[in-house]
């Protein structure tokens, strides 16, 4: 339901306010809505991933790469 509303908002702004950045932001919000927290963080602030790994330990953000010796 929320994604449908974002699509309606995007269509409205495309038709009535063509210079508005809202349609672009709605597209990004729709894409982010299907991601988990780590995916969103990586998309919005890729450089923050190293800091998160330092804070949470080496297992944070590895996405099963096996770099921590566990899988």
Describe the structure.
With 71 residues, this protein is mostly helical. Helix content is 61%, strand content 0%. It has helices at residues 2-16, 22-32, 37-44, 48-56.
**Class computed from helices, strands and strand pairing:** mainly alpha
Spell out the helices and strands N to C. Answer: HHHH
Q: How many β strands by DSSP?
A: 0
Query: What is the percentage of strand-forming residues?
Result: under 5%
The helix content is: 55-70%
Any idea what the shape is? elongated
Largest sheet: none
What is the oligomeric state here?
A: single chain
Task: Throw out a few tags for this protein.
about 70 residues, elongated
SSE arrangement:
Blueprint: H1 2-16, H2 22-32, H3 37-44, H4 48-56
Summarize the structure.
The chain has 71 residues and is mainly α. It has helices spanning 2-16, 22-32, 37-44, 48-56. It is built from four helices and no strands.
């Amino acid at each position: 339901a929320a994604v449908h509303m974002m699509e309606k908002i995007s269509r409205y702004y495309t038709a009535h306010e063509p210079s508005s950045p809202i349609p672009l932001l709605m597209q990004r919000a729709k894409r982010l809505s299907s991601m988990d927290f780590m995916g969103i963080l990586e998309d919005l602030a890729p450089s923050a991933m190293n800091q998160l790994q330092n804070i949470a330990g080496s297992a944070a953000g590895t996405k099963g790469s096996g770099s921590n010796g566990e899988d």
